[in-house]
Amino acid sequence: MKQHRDPHQREIVIVSGGSPDADIATVLAQADYIIGADRGAAVILALGYTPDLALGDFDSVHEWEREHIQTSSHHYIGCDAIDKNYTDTELAFLAALEHQATSITLCAGTGTRLDHTLANIHLLKRALELQIDMRIIDGHNCIRLADRQLTVKKEHYTYLSLLPLSLEVHGINLIGFQYPLHDASLVIGQSLGISNKWIAEEGSVSIREGLLLVICSND
Question: CA-CA distance, 160 to 156, in Å (whole number)?
Fold first, then answer.
């Protein structure tokens, strides 16, 4: 676990039960606190890391895996698969808030269950309201939410896409990309903001009004 320089920063990584195809080990190496949600705890252990907290109903692992997770994690919280009001990932998100996260990275939060993927994307709004920097990453995407300004680095990504999460987004400025924007607007149902490309190693997105999903992706 890294020694972070700013004592006021607390980077929490959540590994969920979706597709674990991102370079999760690199992300875990930067974490101040690691939470495994359901099967995500098994992924963390398989990568040679120890969950600071493992929680969920663990209905997606075998009993022997659940026992291994329980005995190998620093803290373990099990819950009933039926008698609960939140997904395992949201429980992990709430735990991250309790542990005073200033930034959250959610790994394996996308996958075959579109309902869970969308619910996890909605968590970005909760984090933004609390002024917590949050991103969702998988093997092909990094998803963030903006209500003012974001710096976006090219890194290994090919495309940048902008999609409204609110009904309308106004005053969009996009700098450093093949198709720049100046005081533009997007509404839900448009694909105008899909598949832009960097012309620099770093660009910026800013908006005046609304909520804008900023998605870096590759094929």
Answer: 12
Closest CA to 128 of 185, 161, 162, 166: 166
The residue assigned the tokens 């106004």 is 170
Q: How far apart are CA 9 and CA 188, in angstroms?
A: 34
> Which residue's structure tokens are 């939470």?
35
- 38, two tokens: 């359901």
The residue among 167, 179, 177, 175 whose CA lies nearest residue 209 is 167
d(C-alpha 203, C-alpha 200), whole Å: 7
Q: How many CB atoms lie within 10 A of CB 3?
A: 5
Residues 6+ apart with CB under 8 A from 23: none
48-97, pLDDT tens digit by residue? Answer: 999 999 999 998 899 999 999 999 999 999 987 665 788 999 999 999 99
pLDDT of residue 83: 59
Query: Which residue has tokens 């999609």?
Result: 163
- State the average pLDDT for the chain: 93
Residue 81: CB atoms within 10 Å = 13
